[in-house]
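Before a colleague's protein record goes any further, I have to sign it off. What it holds is a sequence and that sequence's fold in token form. Would you go through it and say whether the fold makes sense for this chain? The record follows directly below this note.
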Amino acid sequence: MENANQVFGIRAIIEAIQSGTIIDKVFIQKDLNSDLMKELLRVIKQKNINFSYVPAEKLNKLSSKNHQGAVATISPISFIQIEELIETVLNKNDKPLFLILDQLSDARNFGAIIRTAECTGVDGIIIQKQGSAPVNGDTIKTSAGAVFNIPICKVDHIKDAIFHLQASGVKTIAATEKTENNIYDINFNTPVAIIMGSEDRGINPSVLKIVDEKAKLPMFGNIGSLNVSVACGAFLYEAIRQRL
């Protein structure tokens, strides 16, 4: 999967980071402990860049070049700061709609959600730096290019973003089955941030403790759960329905 949005090789990645290149994620081979790898990890942590440990096979799929145990993906977009996002949106919209993704990890789900968010007029998407899906070719493709049309903000911690939004008068609503509240009984016709969880774990319990409201979609089948991008679409369109 060779492409222009990659940097491979430990030293090359260090230099890219230090030169100000917007790195979306670094994939590091497990069990490599050279001095140069330690230096890469130090720089990554210093700049708070998203990274994960992967087997060598994953790196070989990402790049056929001599990657030395590290491949980085360069973000095709620039990210907005949380303060700038909230201030800009609130200045132009008295009933903003934000979307928070709590460590959603699948790039295609991320792209599909971005596409729906753009179609429903979401004012900004907030993700966490660590543990979130990368903005890569799959994201761009499944978003149908919408990734270039909607502000995306990366934060150190989702909880900090929620506190910031609440302090700015934005109601936070968590999409979770761990509630008795039905989505159709919730008021979305107000400044709102909808929070969606990860594919496997849902929303972090510590995040659920601080949100203003929780809501679930009614389920009648045997499976009991929806794909996160489908559930997100249902929540966004209920917000739109109430606002029309």
User: Anything to note?
Assistant: Residues 6-74 form a domain with the 60s Ribosomal Protein L30; Chain: A; fold (CATH 3.30.1330.30). The chain has a mean pLDDT of 91.
